[in-house]
UniProtKB/TrEMBL annotation:
Domain Bacterial surface antigen (D15), residue spans: 464-806
Protein name: Outer membrane protein, OMP85 family, putative
Annotated ranges, domain POTRA: 159-209
GO cellular component: outer membrane
Coiled-coil annotated residue ranges, if any: 115-146
Length: 843
């Protein structure tokens, strides 16, 4: 496969060189191909923001040329509009003749039942002929209008320099500078023409000048309540407008939104942005800074409402009406006969059947709009979010009505109406596809059944069956692949509350709480062994805007290995003698633990801003067994020969995304963790060890084969190459990744990446160099570099990453820098380069 990629790269290089040669003989006089546009002199504002204002975009460049333009020119040579017009007329005439033949057939048909049968058949054919004619003519008109397939699908029309659009771009940049406080900024257009090749480079020369700074910030309003809210020191700190800060229209927009949200969250239901007026007086203050810059006096005026209203009125919630609309339509436009129920919270529930199908107590917890409270916009959004998370309703709409007599009062009244419609009680889904993990791609089938509102308290019962057949690397040889079968059956019952005996459970009602009780069975069949896992757990979940919390009160797994080959068992025993505890994964065991997971995620696809992802995990295993009388325990063994484990585990992962512009991004990841056995246990359950290497780790090493520490793998028999046959577990992990992501062409994306990391044991085992030591562990961090090719179909991203070893701690000191060993003619030699196939971004 590496050889194929190598040759493919060579052909792409040739294509790039050839596409650099463009014929100019058909160009009009005075036309110059727009080769590039550059901005010079901008120091305070980024080039990417200014480039977004270009009225002309350059053609897509690849390597040394413009293959898309070459493809367009290739299609243009074969584009013959007259032939296409003639083909359109010919197509119309052809299908019109066929339609006439069918109409004539109807006219010639004999009277009686046979005539009716012929008529129906002919009319059906006529409809199909007319549809076919319409489709073909539509396609031909598109070709006539937009060009042939080469021109519209593969190619790009060459873009020629337009001096008027360049001047418009310069004016747009000057306007953008003014919006950022540079009122004296100028942008001039300069060009550098290559008359021989008819190409032009455009330069936008920027003179920024000095920016305008904000002086005194003053809020002006006749409403005492609004004035107290706007002038509160704590709330003013949240304002983006600060004295001495550069004038920026974006800050004014942010402040406008902040004020509106502040007032709407304090009862001012009818307040809108139009009531705010920003007055910036640049002559109010003299120059007061050492840089001799002008300070602008800023006044934020809250205007009176329009019409008869003399002041902005606060509103309180008078009633909350929760209307559950029926699924079926009401005939004859008749309104359904609703039944009503008033909850202890004062919410009126209405449903068009004999009884309310959902527990009003559960719905009360989710409805944050309360009778008697001031209107709060955030509570409206929170109510919609919490009700939507129940998975009970197709939609959640909220509207507010002002009673006619409300405006006669100092504090207005609102009637809140929440309208919903139930989703189907039963939902069955099935899917089939291909899974790509650490092994080879393999097919899977997934069947799911969901039963909503099982006991009338908005519970959700789920059951899932999955069967997977995929290619897996052998435990004893990563180059040996064979089919592996996996079957899993999982059931879960979700309650929309925290099931806990004390009143502590009510503390989570505002955070969309859930309790999940899960039971699952997993069966794996490989040539080396059969393995089963029966697991049960009870988990509490809740969330806020960007954060989610997961506390698993109890998770118990019963692991059994009914079959294991003698050859594989000998290999496991040999590994155990060498310090690798893989054999522990194939003993009958009872693994119990509880853990807490916190996740923060403010990433939002499409937004051009910095984003973070944080995940923390704390886990303790085997603690429950401390309550069992020691007479039932024998070392680390329970009754019936079951092993049990006592351990703790801490894990953290941090991702940071830095957009460089709309299409390019830097992505960073740091992953660190530690796991350690305690008490009677000498080792961890195998699933709780850490592993490094693979498509989501250090991509220059095979999955789970890196480390531990500087421990060198055995050499292959009769070779100087490392034998990465066995997985290498560790108790400590540290990984760091950096990736530069950029577009290539169309749905093709590229990435350049650097990966670093390793695993270690806390204490030395039989693997020399595996122990974590400070600070020498820094010299044992493996480093890989590489290039990635991604196919981004918006709904699916397929990833192919080539990782190259740059620093290998398993080698002798002095020979660890191995990037120089890379051979373009044989990139896979000695495991130097590794290809990774994956779905989605690595982090």
């Amino acid at each position: 496969m590496l050889k194929t990629v190598h040759y493919l790269g060579g052909w792409l290089l040739v294509l790039g060189v050839l596409s650099g040669c463009m014929s100019t003989k058909n160009w009009k006089k005075g036309q110059y191909f727009l080769r590039s546009q550059d901005i010079k002199g901008n120091k305070k504002l980024s080039s990417s923001n200014l480039e977004a204002l270009f009225r002309q975009k350059t053609n897509t460049r690849f390597l040394f040329g413009y293959p898309s333009v070459a493809a367009y020119n290739y299609g243009l040579k074969r584009f013959e509009p007259e032939k296409i017009r003639a083909k359109i007329e010919k197509t119309k005439a052809k299908y019109d003749t066929l339609v006439e033949q069918q109409e004539a057939r109807i006219g010639k048909a004999p009277e009686g039942a046979k005539r009716e049968k012929i008529r129906q058949k002919a009319e059906k054919k006529i409809r199909k002929l007319k549809e076919k004619k319409e489709d073909k003519v539509k396609d031909l008109n598109q070709t006539l209008r937009e060009g042939n397939w080469w021109m519209r699908s593969v190619g790009e029309k060459p873009i020629f320099y337009d001096s008027l659009k360049a001047k418009e771009s310069a004016k747009e940049m000057e306007a953008y500078y003014r919006s950022k406080g540079f009122f004296q900024a100028t942008v001039d257009v300069e060009t550098k023409r290559n008359k021989k090749r008819k190409k032009v480079k455009v330069y936008y020369k920027v003179e920024e000048g000095k920016p305008l700074l904000l002086g005194k910030i003053e809020y002006v309003t006749e409403n005492k309540v609004i004035d107290s809210l706007l002038t509160t020191p704590e709330l003013r700190k949240k304002s983006p407008l600060k004295q001495g800060k550069r004038y920026d229209e974006e800050d004014f927009n942010t402040e406008r939104t902040r004020i509106v949200n502040l007032l709407k969250n304090n009862g001012f239901y009818t307040f809108h942005k139009q009531y705010l007026l920003f007055k910036v007086d640049t002559t109010a203050l003299k120059d007061t800074t050492k840089q001799n810059r002008k300070l602008a006096h800023c006044r934020i005026v809250v205007n009176r409402p329009a019409g008869e209203e003399k002041y902005h009125r606060q509103y309180k919630i008078d009633k909350v009406i929760f209307e559950i609309q029926p699924n079926t339509e009401i005939t004859n436009n008749a309104k359904p006969d609703y039944n009503k129920k008033v909850s202890s919270k004062g919410v009126v529930y209405k449903f068009a059947k004999r009884r309310i199908p959902y527990s009003s107590h559960i719905l009360d917890y989710r409805v944050q709009i309360e009778p008697g409270a001031f209107y709060q916009y955030d509570q409206v959004l929170r109510t919609k979010s919490l009700l939507g998370a129940l998975d009970m309703f197709k939609f959640v709409n909220t509207t507010f009505e002002i009673p006619k007599d409300s405006n006669d009062q100092k504090v207005g009244r609102l009637i809140a109406r929440i309208k919903t419609s139930p989703v189907e009680k039963y939902q069955f889904t099935s899917e089939a596809g291909v899974t790509v993990g650490q092994g080879l791609p393999g097919p899977f089938i997934n069947l799911s059944l969901k039963n909503r509102n099982l006991f009338g308290g908005a519970e959700v019962f789920e059951t899932n069956f999955q069967y997977t057949l995929d290619g897996q690397a052998s435990f004893s040889d990563e180059n040996q692949n064979y089919s592996s079968q996996e079957l899993s059956l999982n059931t879960a019952l979700n309650f929309p509350v925290i099931l806990f005996p004390t009143r502590l459970r009510f503390l989570f009602n505002d955070y969309g709480p859930k309790t999940r009780i899960n039971v699952g069975y997993n069966f794996v069949q490989r040539p080396e062994y059969n393995r089963t896992n029966l697991r049960s757990s009870m988990t509490y979940l809740w969330f806020s805007r960007y954060s989610s919390y997961n506390f698993t009160l109890s998770e118990i797994s019963f692991v059994n290995v009914p079959r294991i080959s003698s050859t594989f068992k000998e290999q496991l025993l040999e590994l155990e003698r060498a310090g690798n505890p893989l054999i522990k994964s194939f003993e009958r065991a009872l693994v119990g633990s509880y853990y807490f997971t916190y996740t923060f995620n403010n990433t939002n696809i499409g937004e051009l801003r910095n984003a973070h992802y944080v995940k923390l995990l704390m886990e303790s295993g085997g603690t429950t067994f401390n309550l069992i009388d020691r007479q039932f325990l024998g070392g680390d063994t329970l009754i019936a020969g079951l092993k049990y484990f006592q351990f703790y585990r801490f894990n953290s992962s941090f991702h940071y995304y830095l957009p460089l512009n709309k299409k390019q991004k830097l992505a960073f990841r740091i992953h660190a963790g530690i796991a350690r056995p305690y008490g009677v246990s000498e080792t961890l359950p195998y699933e709780k060890f850490y592993f490094a290497g693979g498509s989501n780790s250090v991509r220059a090493w095979a999955p789970r084969r890196l480390g531990p520490g500087s421990h060198p793998p055995e050499l292959r028999e009769g070779s100087e190459e490392f034998d990465y046959s066995f997985e290498q577990p560790g108790e400590i992990i540290f990984e760091a990744n950096m990736e530069y992501r950029f577009p290539i062409y169309g749905f093709f994306e590229g990435a350049l990446f650097v990966d670093a990391g390793n695993v270690w044991m806390i204490e030395a085992d039989n693997r020399p160099g595996s122990e974590f030591k400070f600070p020498s562990f820094l010299q044992e961090i493996a480093v890989g570099v590489g290039f990635g090719l991604r196919l981004n179909f918006s709904f699916l991203l397929i990833r192919l990453d080539a990782g190259v070893k740059a620093y290998d701690p398993a080698r002798a000191v002095g020979n660890r820098y191995v990037l120089g060993n890379f051979n373009l003619g044989n990139p896979g030699h000695n495991g130097q380069t590794l290809l990774n196939l994956g779905i989605g971004y690595p982090f």
